[in-house]
Amino acid sequence: MSALIKRHILCFLRDRWSVFFSFLSVLIILMLFAFFLGAMHETTVPEALRGTDEGNHLVYSWLFSGVLMVSTVTVPLGFLHFMVKDRATQSINDFYVTPLSRTKIVFSYLVAAILVSTALGVVNLLLGQVIVYLNASTFLPLASFLQVLGLIVLSSTLFSSLFYFVVSYLKSLNAHGTLSTLVGTLIGFVTGVYVPVANLGNTLTNILAAFPPLQMAGLFRRVYMDKALHDVFAGAPDAMTRYMENFGVDVVFAGRTFSTFELLVFSAFWIVLFVLLSVLRLRRFKV
Amino acid sequence: MISVKGLTKDYEKTRALDGIDFQVSEGAFFALLGPNGAGKSTTIEIISTLKGKSAGDVAINGSVLGKDDDAIRKAIGVVFQYSTLDEDLTAYENLMLRGLFYTDDKAAIQKRIETLQEFLGFESYVNRRIKTLSGGQKRKIDIARALLHEPRILLLDEPTTGLDPQSRENIWELVLELKRKTNMTIVLTTHYMEEVSDCDQVIILHEGKIRAEDSAEALRAKHATDKLRALPKDNRLKEALSRENIKFSTVQNTLHIPLKDSFEGVQYVERFKDLIETFEIVKGTMDDVFLNITGRKLSDYDERLN
What we know:
The structure holds two protein chains of two kinds. By secondary structure, chain A is mainly α. Chain A has helices at residues 2-14, 16-22, 24-42, 53-79, 81-88, 93-96, 102-136, 142-167, 173-190, 202-209, 212-224, 226-232, 237-246, 260-285, and strands at 252-253, 256-257.
């Protein structure tokens, strides 16, 4: 199966447009941040700390935790374009006539999607750290850095399995393109990157809190922003709670804030659910 | 080597294959001839384990389809109608990665690629990306890919379809050379009459049923007649043929006289030489065979599709 995974990854990396479009949402977030999101977020920092390293650390940590989250959603979806293409062009038949088992062939796309998303997530994390350092003269503490790495793997696995299941129903590249556009447009909203979660209203926030994107975004923010939050809101726990609720650090469902442990359990649940659904779906792949 | 009995394939509303039987012996050059929709590709897809069958039995080298599929997959190499190569990878990368589906021994795959590039003649573009190659060059790499694991049986599903005439001829020459040098069992599907002329065994498939089976030469002898095409000097040739009860048909200004064999044509020419401006004796073609067996010309299907 490793040769097949290598093939998928090599094809993805050679197709510059696929790589570009996988990152389009991330690029849009960075541009929006440069134009107005950054300035808007600046106003949420206590006045005394605006423009200081602590203040900048909060703003840039919020930005890059969102970027990491979004990249682990859009990269697997963009990558799985190859699965749709291989099926639509019947190139997958070339693998089916080899002694490789169908299970291995079909799941090689999932494994490759997780690997690519994780690798590009790590690249995003490192680039993000450089930018955070340039603006806030600080890096993530080692323990948080390692936790974020773990979250990249977890989020890549979750969204790869989710989209793997969804994409298995798509029969044309056009359908995949439409789905990618839809996800790329919505992901900034449903994770509270374009608009603070609090601005979405109670009903929508409750609905979003029940689904993986906001839950995973909350996990990323909790770990990535932990130091910045404690530095900026030291001695002001109420202000910190308000900020965490407004900006999607806390995931609140019907007035109750999910704990980190609960969010991790939910993630595991989603992964198991989508992998199981994919296994059931796999049986229908046989002609 | 390949045994097919009562093979049937039903789709929701149509029956693509209707209980076909055939045997392919080791080293044979075997062709399935028929128009698009005859069931040729479905047969190849079932034999190559891609599609399930609705009924019937298929065995390859004693391995039973549906039970010993892995053994069958190791024994066959498949060249599909469409290229399955990765356009953004080089020919070498395509072959190396696919070689790894069969063995972990990279050195052995490397050696095999070198042998194939020498045999098929793609040294000059082995390191070029597939998307930069011509249709004929891509086809050569498709064939190399099918031969990577040294299969005993090569399944060629319309290997020259979509190629320009020059590339078609080159690829066909390559297939014939492969046959001569390796003595592999080759199963070919085609709707080009001229391609089956070189085959030892031909099956004419029409609407999911086998309509005829024999060598190309025997089919021609049984189902096609040679013709004398004569351009008459004037009306006297028609009158003379009618007088002597010799059958003929008129196509534009030429008279077509069916012959038992070529020698009969020579006799007619000798007898009516004063009435003939010019002539040619035309051997019966596989197109005639198809027409006589199915009641339609194979070229009619191509026109309908175009």
